[in-house]
Amino acid sequence: MNRYDHLSYSSLSKYIACPAQFRLYMTEKKSLPTEPAIEGNKRHAEIASRLLEATIDQSGFGDRLKNFCRHILKSPTAVEREFELDFITNRVIGKIDAFSIHGNQAVIVDWKGYPGYNEDLQLKIYSLAVRELYPEVEVCHGYFFFTGPDYYEPHSYFLGDLNAFSGEVARIIDTISDDQDFKPCPGPHCSRCAFSERCEVAANFSIVKMESLSEVIEAARRIFAAEAMVEKIKERVKAWMADHGVDVLPIDSDNKYYLSPSISFRNGKIKSEKEREACEKIIQIAISESQAPSLNKITNSESADGKIIQIGKAVKSLKEKIKMSDLADMMKAAGLLSSNATNADASGAIRDRLGTNFIMATEDQKIRLYQELTDLLERKAG
After folding, report:
1. Phi, psi of 72 (to 5 degrees)
2. What's the pLDDT score for residue 118?
3. What is the model's pLDDT at position 346?
4. What is the predicted pLDDT for the residue at 318?
């Protein structure tokens, strides 16, 4: 049973890390944006504006960002592009900062201020979305670009990678749908959890006898939750001291708390044949004289549902797409799929019919299957 209207990279990432964190994230009122978040939004808006106006070279951003935009991203196909991936029992939505299409390759970028805890799960989901929009794409090059230190982190995905990942997402969505407990799972992610003060693991933390290996490991995992709680308390104490102009806080007669006031060129081993091939392919884009559609052809036009983006003569609309859930419902009505089939079961049945995963299939393949199922249902009704 689907309890949530939609999912996103953020929510999927939180569930994988800790189901309890996911539940609170999905059900609690969202807190006001922090200063870093506000600054990040401003930075995103400026880059988007510069890309659309083709004035990134006149900006105050670093040289590597400018060179990346000039030689790798080139003229972007879309900027701030919203997307929706249909997974039968739920949908995954998001917004891609920018991407460009170069023949059968795509370049996808997510702008970030500084390095932190970055998962390529985000770029994988973005790659699935781009691949669904442009079925001719066979390789997706995803980048986290850190505008503060002015460097980027690349990740490349081939068709086999995306096929496997779409099945993985389907299984995660099924697990979320079936989960009744959403138990906490402490780990390094606790330090970034906005709900650490409400964590039952931290609240019930105690020193117990540890005799077996499993008990020792469980105690070690719980340390993450306890440390996250301590860090939150320390931040509040520090904030109080700063707000009141206090530099030193005496704790007792002996102790106190107080407030204390380049690019490298290296060599290394190629890890795999796939890494080598990805490097060669992105170099093809960098040295190619051919350009993607020029920036002055990029327009963002709003339809009734606000989800159409026009690029030159190409128009992509969510309303025009055949959804995976449509095909699943038709297969159930035709008796080809159990009425209580899971997301993964339905995805597998559709894959068997299409010859590939739904997200990887072309629109022509989806239309043909839709027509086959329509004809089958009409014959069954007659």
Report:
1. -105, -60
2. 67
3. 82
4. 36
**How many CB atoms within 10 Å of residue 193?**
26
What pLDDT does 125 receive?
A: 96
d(CA 144, CA 110): 5
Instruction: Provide φ and ψ at 278, rounded to 5°.
Output: -65, -40
Cα torsion at 326, 328, 334, 336 (round to 10°)?
Answer: 160
> Which 3 state secondary structure label does DSSP give 108?
strand
CATH of domain 7-180+270-315: 3.90.320
Mean pLDDT for the stretch of residues 86-103 = 93
pLDDT at 66: 95
| Dihedrals phi, psi of 274, to nearest 5 degrees | -65, -40
Helix (H, G, I), strand (E, B) or coil at 137: coil
Query: Cα–chain-centroid distance for residue 371?
Result: 33
Of the candidates 346, 322, 287, 292, the residue with the CA atom closest to the CA atom of residue 71: 287
Tell which phi-psi region holds residue 27, choosing left (phi > 0), alpha (psi between -120 and 50) or beta.
alpha
User: Which residue, among 170, 237, 202, has the nearest Cα to 21 in the 3D structure?
Assistant: 202
In contact, 23 and 4? CB cutoff 8 Å: no
E strand segments, the chain: 7-8, 78-86, 91-102, 105-112, 139-146, 151-158, 248-250, 256-258, 298-299, 308-311, 314-317
Considering the chain, what is the average pLDDT of its residues? 83
Using CA atoms, how far apart are residues 87 and 172, in angstroms rounded to an integer?
11
pLDDT at residue 302 above 70? no
Q: Is the pTM of this model over 0.85?
A: no
